[in-house]
What we know:
Blueprint (H helix, E strand, L loop, with lengths): L3 E2 L9 H26 L10 H4 L6 E5 L6 E5 L9 E3 L3 H9 L11 H8 L5 E3 L2 E2 L3 E4 L2 E4 L2 E4 L2 E4 L3 E4 L2 E4 L2 E10 L2 E10 L2 E10 L2 E10 L2 E10 L2 E4 L2 E2 L2 H22 L5 H5 L4 H8 L12 H15 L10 H4 L7 E4 L6 E4 L3 H5 L7 H7 L6 H4 L7 H4 L11 E2 L3 E4 L2 E4 L3 E4 L2 E4 L2 E4 L2 E4 L2 E4 L2 E4 L2 E19 L2 E19 L2 E10 L2 E2 L2 H22 L15
Parallel strand pairs: 1-7, 4-5, 6-8, 7-9, 8-10, 9-11, 10-12, 11-13, 12-13, 13-14, 14-15, 15-16, 16-17, 17-18, 22-24, 23-25, 24-26, 25-27, 26-28, 27-29, 28-30, 29-31, 30-31, 31-32, 32-33
Antiparallel strand pairs: 2-3, 18-19, 20-21, 33-34
Amino acid sequence: MTSTAYDGVNKALTPEQKNGVNICQQGVGKAWKSACKILLGDEIGELEQFEDYLYQYIGHIDEKNSAISGKPVAVSGSDICSNGRIIGNEEIGEYEQILKSVKLDIDSIKDIESILEAVGEKLYYSGGITLGNSKYVQETNRCVDSSFVYRSMDVYEGCKYVALSDQVRKCEYVFGVGLTGESSFIIRGHEVWRDARCFEGFRTYNSSDCYYVANLEGCNNCMFSFNQRNKSNLIGNLQFSKDEYTGIKEKLLEDIRTILRERKTIPGIVDIVAKTDAKQEKSTEACIVKTRATFAPKDVETAFQEVSRIVLGKRLTKLIDYENWLTKHSGKVIGVKSQISDGVVYVPPLEAFVEIRNSAIKEDEALEYGKNTVGIRELNGLTPLNARERLACIKLTTPEITFGENIDITECSGYGVNTAHAFRGSFIYADKCVAYSYFIRNSEYIFGSSLIFLSKYCINCYHSQNLTRCFEVSDSTNCSDCYFCHNCESLSNCMFCFNTKSKRYAIANVEIGPEAFGRIKKLVLDDLTKRIEANKGLDIDIYNIGCQKK
């Protein structure tokens, strides 16, 4: 059974949905208690008591009422304009009937405004998107082939028992995690990969049984440690025997349990690493790099000109002039000076990473800095409540991440797997010619986009895969030559299509044939490029065209 259910107005739910809510809540609640026993040695309370703590640095799920049924619908983040009409993904059939009522006079179309005048008020965004073999999913958006998922977004590839999390794949028993893959039994992890049984981890890979750690790889049984590789039984970067480590660990876990039971929150790894007093904040803000490259690298600039010619019909020049437009929904990489050198550290546009910018050092500086240790005096009496002060001499760390051999990477944070020609992006893996984009995988010639996989020749596309020659497309798959489309599948040569699939030469979900489509496409692209060149961007995009005032 595939079920998308939402908490809230129970009378709006069918009996099957109510049953799904109960099963999801019970299953996730039990999983939370199991994770606490495994990680902390005992239960600490009900999941709902810790939602604020777990959600602190995670993209939030909001709820809006469906414009069709009035039922609550889960919506991710804040990209969709505030007055946008929302429907549940299971209401797409009814939505198709609404669009059929639109009378689109194709002969009267002269530009974008004439299309939006006719169909803008009928463009409804989908929330609660739950696809594939998913079941027992509550208050969640963009969930594929996963089960027992609660108040999360972008959960993929067979996840199970996930709550209050964002951008998760192949994970089980994870709570309050972001940008996490192939991990299990994680409470509060930020960019963790192939980890097991970790609590409060930041940029940690292939590690297990770690607590309050940052920039660890191949480590196990470590606590309050930073910038280490292939180490075991560390506390404060100090080496202990297994028996010594176990004794100290038990005392620290007791402190963690007590604090969580009493306060329902606890200082996290991000809070410990970040400098937060006013003096430090002021001095660090002064170190933000404001004078960076004034031109994109040659190969990236050439790629942008070619993509704009192919997608928009006109070659746009000087990529850097379009930065604000291209980063509107993908975020900007921040450059800050290293805390121990004049080097520039590049920070991705994720809240947890931005918070630690005040304590950032470069990736190649971090391992040398990791040789520092705390003293025994600082270690005695260490708890999460005083860790920021006690660990001051070791807690600098890096948000930068690189893997493999890469070519021509400029001002990026997080890249690898033979990426080439990337500019001002983050989490760019196995890509070619990418700029101003966030989390792009196995793609090429991508600009101003985020969470795009297996795609090419795209500008300003989001949360999609297998796109080719697309502009302003979101939540879609297997589409080509599409413009301003949302929640679509297997479209070719379409514009302003929402919540539909398997169409060709369509506008607003109505197929009009190649000749009429070609004529209208030329008018629209001429209008688009004039606006883009004049203003170095557009005021309309996929997230607000359904909200334009008439």
